[in-house]
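Input chain follows. Return structure tokens only.
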Amino acid sequence: MSAAAADLHAAYAQAGALQAQRVAAGTPVVGRKIGFTNARLWPVYGVHQPIWGAVYANTLQHLSGPGTYALGHLHSPRLEPEIALRIGRTPAPQATLAELAACVDAVAHGFEVVDCPYPDWRFTAAQAVAVGSLHAALLLGPVMATRAFGANLADALTQVQLRLLCNGSVRDEGSGQAVLGGPLQALQHLVHLLHEQGAPPLSAGEWVTTGSLTQALPIQAGERWHTEISGPPAGVWAASA
């Protein structure tokens, strides 16, 4: 095992210990986040592989419309527009995309708020993992049943196009294809990785947020962020804009 791999292994063990403490204190795990699925971000942060962390009951928020999120407790928050998938049943470790699609029962668009305790957002993959893979919050919009996306969920999610706006100005653009070829492909990567690590598999009801479709952009109190999102099938994303 290389030194970097050993560091990453130790970091996941440290993250697991912190997760166990939070669960013991009464904060259950309700999902997982996958980080660095967008290769466009790799040279920016010097992390060249996806990582994962836990999403907790007190970091997941469901929004029925425009909402607010307080930033005062965070070090250096950034915002990532993402597509999240709800697990309907535990997928097999080697599930194909079609088999994996059958294990997903809902889709939502939302924002992950990420935070970094390291100066200037400089860290290794192991350092990111050790602090929960930088997860601070997952803010999800309307939940849509997978049947709304037609017969090929993987293809539909890959074709998503998104614009990220702050105070009415476009700050960045991205697509579903940016995250390892598509959100379902990102989920497939996570399923394999959890199996390889001997980590608990995904279970029914968990939300998996699949990585940022755009850059991770710094955010400040008082700003108004939203997305314009489109893709097949026509009209399905209207409720999530």
